[in-house]
Amino acid sequence: MTEVSSTRSVKARCGSFLVGTERGVQREGFQVAGRSSTAGSMSAAASPQGKFTLLRDTGTDGSFLVHHFLSFYLRAGCKVCFVALLQSFSHYNIVAQKLGVSLTAARERGQLVFLEGLKSCLDLLFGEEEPSGEPSPLQFISGSTSNLKALFDFVRTSLTPADSASWKGPVLLVDDLSVLLSLGAAPVAVLDFIHYCRVVVCSQLQGNIVVLVHGSEDAEDEENDLVGNSLGHHSDLILWVEGLATGFCKDVHGEIKIIKRLSLESTEQDLVQVYQYKIQERNVTFFARGLSAAVL
């Protein structure tokens, strides 16, 4: 992409988004118009902890952000609990390998705790028990309970540090929270689950939470909108991916709005930045509106 000194063109490696800084959003590996961003040299250990990041998408698929966060935190040496409700382990592993990370190796060394939601659902439907003998984290599907306590207990147990643990800050990653609604969980139960996860992961363990809520194509899907909007009011950082209003373009795949909350208690105005992006095989390129390589 042609660099223009008067623009804020941005090129990012996969896994570039992480946490907010005083200038907006810390981005690992970003090159900012004519000078290198120092964010790339900062590790997850040096970044703010106890933060809740909400990923949303409208009219496009924002799953690429999930892969970015997953690979970033694993490379940073964090303990990650990944509640994967949308795809299989093999899918996430194939994408992660393209980003230079092996989920299989991370799981074997105890750094990654992976809940494969698709498999757990099938096991419940066919009456198979969990290998550990414990209740399934998705026990609510069977109708025996209406809350998500079993899923919360799974997260808490997975991220509670052991005496010999040498991992950095714990991270909870959920893809995608909307699936819980589709499986029959009530919006209140989903919001309660996130609330208790924030108490344990963000407040007690000083870790981070990253949650994806897919936008619904159904304009009358009030439950999904309720959950997404409610979480938005309590998020430290929101990354909102939207499709182009003009339709498909091979050089610009969409826009991303970065909303950073200066304070959840004060009335200070949020910091908002908007970029366009193009997804490539192993990275994503970000640039200001109207400054794609095709235009320049």
Model description:
There is one protein chain. This protein is α/β, with parallel strands linked by helices and 296 residues long. It has a single domain (10-287), classed as P-loop containing nucleotide triphosphate hydrolases (Rossmann fold), CATH 3.40.50. Helices cover 28% and strands 26% of the residues. It contains eight helices and 14 strands. It has helices at 63-75, 89-98, 103-108, 117-125, 149-159, 178-182, 187-204, 222-232; strands at 10-13, 17-21, 24-27, 31-32, 35-36, 52-58, 78-84, 112-116, 168-175, 208-214, 237-242, 254-260, 271-279, 283-287. The strands form two sheets. The protein has a twelve-stranded mixed β-sheet, with helices on both faces. β2 (17-21) and β3 form a beta hairpin. It is globular. Mean pLDDT is 79; it is low at 1-46. It is found in: Cytoplasm; Nucleus. It comes from Anser cygnoides.
Looking at the overall shape, the CATH architecture is 3-Layer(aba) Sandwich
Whole-number total of structural domains: 1
Order of helices and strands: EEEEEEHEHHEHHEHHEHEEEE
Low-confidence stretches: 1-46
Q: What assembly state would you assign to the polypeptide chains in this entry?
A: single chain
CATH topology: Rossmann fold
Structural class by secondary-structure content:
alpha/beta
Biggest beta sheet summary: 12 strands, mixed
- β content, as a range? 25-35%
Overall spatial form: globular
Q: What is the share of helical residues?
A: 25-40%
Summed over residues and divided by their number, the pLDDT gives a mean of: 79
Gyration radius (Cα, Å) is 19 Å
Which class in CATH terms?
A: Alpha Beta
What is the end-to-end distance? Answer: 8 Å
The number of E-state strands comes to 14
**Strand order of the main beta sheet, please?**
5-4-1-14-13-12-11-6-10-9-7-8
